[in-house]
Design brief:
Blueprint (H helix, E strand, L loop, with lengths): L1 E7 L7 H8 L3 E8 L15 H9 L2 E5 L3 H14 L4 E4 L5 H7 L27 H8 L4 E7 L2 E9 L5 H9 L7 H9 L20 H15 L1 E3 L2
Parallel strand pairs: 1-2, 1-3, 3-4, 5-7
Antiparallel strand pairs: 5-6
Helix pairs in contact: 7-8
Organism: Methanocaldococcus vulcanius (strain ATCC 700851 / DSM 12094 / M7) (Methanococcus vulcanius)
InterPro entries: DUF166
Protein name: Thymidylate synthase
Amino acid sequence: MAKILVVSDGAYGYRVQGTVNSFGKKNKFLGIYKIDRPDDLLVDNIEFPEELLEKIKEADILLLYTQHPDNTYYLCYEARRLNKDIAIIVATWSGEGAKKELSKFDAICPEEMCLLDEEEVRGIIDKYPKLKEFLEEFGTPKVRVYVKNGEVKDVDVLRTSICGSTLFMAKLMRGMKVNDLEEFARNSAMLIQRYPCVAGKIKIFRGDCKKQKALNIHKKAILDGLTILD
């Protein structure tokens, strides 16, 4: 079982606990730690609570929702120093330069957390085997949608986005009418907006629209998972 630790210096990352506790069978929520976000953009030295450092030693997966770049950098540094087996996933990296710099710690920097899959980590998944357990349940959504007589009878979530939007969408899809498949998939994917989806909000210094990518990846999951019952 993979033990997941979350660190945040702002408003993001707090949905992970509910998602892991409600859906995780191969993953366990270890805790979430809120740390201070420095006022200055550049900081010479950052110290973290000893309790957090001890939890890093215990964790298998470290999820960082730290928006200050120095918080992110030094947490990656400490995590790799303290725990050679920990898989580091940075949800809030701040640009290609930062992504390249964090790569020396084997930090995974997905475009969005709901776009994280085996392909994203193909170079290191064997190095950090607990990633396999994590990605069996969390990452790019996978669903199975059962349709009978033009209506959604049930939806099985095989893998959910870590924020829980896939689970939310699946509950609301039951009973929906299915006429045009493309329109149905698009309308279903748009349900994550009511969660609401925060894709794109947690990336600093970036102007591209990741929320649309989150919608598209859920739409694709629906179309790929359609099962028409007789």
